[in-house]
Amino acid sequence: MLPAEETVYMDAVLTPNRSLSRQGFIIAMAAIAFTFFMTGLMFWSMGAGPILGFMGLDIAAIWLAFHISYKRQREETRVTVTARAIHLHHKDAKGREKHAEVPSAFARVELEEPAGPTSWLRIEHGKTAWIIGRFLTPTERSSFAEALRQALLAARAERHPA
After folding, report:
1. What DSSP state is assigned to residue 105?
2. For the domain that residue 119 is a member of, what is the CATH number?
3. Within this chain, do residues 65 and 89 fall inside the same structural domain, yes or no?
4. Which domain holds residue 38?
5. How many helices (H) and strands (E) does the chain have?
6. Does residue 80 share a domain with residue 53?
7. Which domain of life is it from (predicted)?
8. Which of 145, 149, 79 is nearest to 111 (CA)?
């Protein structure tokens, strides 16, 4: 918990991008179900009745894929930068939480440039590193790394004025 008198230089919550809204999901599943049902009826009318059941299995597989995707999108990371420390609070898709506090005076923000799919955004302190924003796109990682570096510079300037 942050003391009330501390200045917060960054308070960001990172979450995965959503593929569809709830309403979009319902519309997409209705369109898929209608299309598969009509295709199944066409095959049934030609005497291939079992195809209708397999179309139902396809619909169930698509629904399951969306369900798994939505469960994974519950992940979030909160990054708070103050003059004293960087506070990291991560909640995974299953609801497990992890906390870390890194002194802002000794923290480093590292990201391999140019940012690619395998370059991770890390907050380092000594020989320990915390990877954050794995679900962000490379462009988002670069942008967030720059904003985090600026917040860290401002926090250090408060603590150690020139």
Report:
1. T
2. 2.30.29
3. no
4. 22-72
5. 3, 7
6. no
7. Bacteria
8. 145
Low-confidence ranges of the chain (pLDDT < 70): 1-4, 160-162
Give me the pLDDT at residue 60, please: 94
Contact 98, 76 (CB under 8 A): no
Q: How many domains does the chain have?
A: 2
Task: State the residue for tokens 């796109």.
Answer: 137
- Nearest to 83, CA basis, from 2, 144, 7: 7
| Same domain membership, residue 101 and residue 35 | no
CA 52 to chain centre: 37
pLDDT at 160: 67
pLDDT for res 17: 83
State the Cα–Cα distance between residues 141 and 56, nearest whole angstrom: 40
Query: What is the amino acid identity at position 117?
Result: P
Q: Do both 38 and 99 map to the same domain? A: no
Neighbour-count burial of 141, counting CB atoms closer than 10 A to its CB (0-12 exposed, 13-18 middle, 19+ buried): buried
Q: What is the pLDDT of residue 62?
A: 93
Q: Are residues 82 and 128 in the same domain?
A: yes
Give pLDDT, residue 113.
80
